[in-house]
């Protein structure tokens, strides 16, 4: 009898965990649908392409500090109070006419008579109107982005993300892949932060994945090829800016795939090149160390770009790819 009760409790526990996971996945899917609906509505109201609106929201989401709340916001765009309400609007009156009188930019996007910075529709509508200040073309929108952020990397990241969203016509792009083909032998361990001496004492800003010459190197993520060519330290390398404000660096390649070009949109699993041992010298230098892929990740928080340890992500993506 006792054994039967334990079995029943175990089954109930497994069922509860499974139900929780399914519910979490459905909730995550719902939030992407809600976002897309808001982006499409804002596009209809302003004629700003939805993928630019989505890219700004995505940039803000990934640039902000993580919230203590378990609930993810549908829209992450935050506009500073002085810019939204106007400098003289000390009471933060949400009447659009009063905001305009005080040279604020807040707009009522859902017709409720208030321009509320915490309302997702108002936030998106206001941002779209800020982007339109110089005109409706894509070049005009880029000028609008520059005037809002005053930072080249922010504009570059948003434009790249918009390009990815436009190509795939989707924002729920969560698939990932391991950076070397798992059909070949490879090995890696956590080497981020280790001491390096070539070119002066420095830390190792990545994880080395050792594999044989010619092992295919693949994109781990959705993104845009931002950089391709020789580097004194990294040899033949490729840099990809993804949709999460992260720059992915692939170093020491022996060569590139013929179709890989700067500005190209890539997805997880797209072949970029092959493992090699190039670097530590002028263009063409090779063989100063065993063949491996140097894989680095750099996060942009809207103010600074910094290296962080890719090892936990590589473990996760390796398991996902199996």
Automatic annotation (TrEMBL):
Gene3D superfamilies: Glucose Permease (Domain IIA) (2.70.70.10). Residues 203-301 form the M23ase beta-sheet core domain. InterPro entries: Cell_wall_metabolism_enzyme, Dup_hybrid_motif, Lysozyme-like_dom_sf, M23ase_b-sheet_dom. Residues 1-24 form the signal peptide. Pfam families: Peptidase_M23. SUPFAM superfamilies: Duplicated hybrid motif (SSF51261), Lysozyme-like (SSF53955). GO terms for molecular function: hydrolase activity. Transmembrane segments: none annotated. Keywords: Hydrolase, Signal. This is Murein DD-endopeptidase MepM/ murein hydrolase activator NlpD. It comes from Virgibacillus alimentarius.
């Amino acid at each position: 009898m006792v054994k039967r009760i334990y079995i029943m409790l175990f089954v109930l526990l497994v069922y509860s965990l499974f139900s929780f996971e399914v519910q979490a996945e459905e909730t995550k899917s719902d939030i992407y649908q809600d976002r897309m609906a808001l982006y499409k509505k804002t596009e209809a109201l302003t004629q700003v392409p939805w993928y630019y609106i989505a890219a700004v929201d995505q940039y803000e989401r990934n640039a902000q500090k993580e919230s203590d709340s378990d609930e993810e916001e549908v829209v992450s765009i935050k506009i500073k109070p002085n810019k939204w309400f106007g400098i003289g609007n000390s009471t933060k009156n949400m009447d659009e006419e009063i905001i305009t009188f005080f040279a604020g930019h807040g707009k009522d996007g859902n017709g409720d008579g208030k321009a509320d910075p915490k309302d997702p529709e108002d936030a998106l509508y206001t941002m779209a109107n800020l982007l339109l200040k110089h005109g409706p073309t894509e070049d005009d929108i880029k000028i609008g982005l520059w005037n809002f952020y005053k930072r080249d990397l922010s504009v570059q990241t948003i434009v790249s993300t918009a390009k990815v969203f436009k190509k795939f016509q989707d924002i729920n792009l969560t698939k990932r892949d391991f950076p070397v083909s798992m059909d070949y032998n490879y090995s890696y361990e956590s080497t981020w932060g280790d001491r390096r001496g070539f070119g002066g004492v420095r830390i190792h800003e990545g994880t080395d994945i050792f594999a044989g010459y010619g092992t295919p190197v693949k994109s781990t993520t959705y993104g845009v090829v931002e950089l391709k060519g020789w580097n004194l330290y990294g040899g033949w390398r490729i840099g990809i800016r993804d949709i999460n404000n992260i720059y992915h660096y692939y170093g020491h390649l022996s060569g590139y795939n013929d179709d890989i070009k700067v500005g190209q949109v890539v997805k997880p699993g797209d072949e970029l090149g092959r493992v090699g041992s190039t670097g530590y010298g002028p263009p063409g230098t090779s063989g100063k160390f065993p063949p491996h892929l140097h894989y680095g990740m750099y996060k942009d928080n809207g103010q600074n770009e910094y290296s962080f340890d890719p090892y936990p992500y590589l473990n996760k993506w390796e398991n996902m790819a199996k």
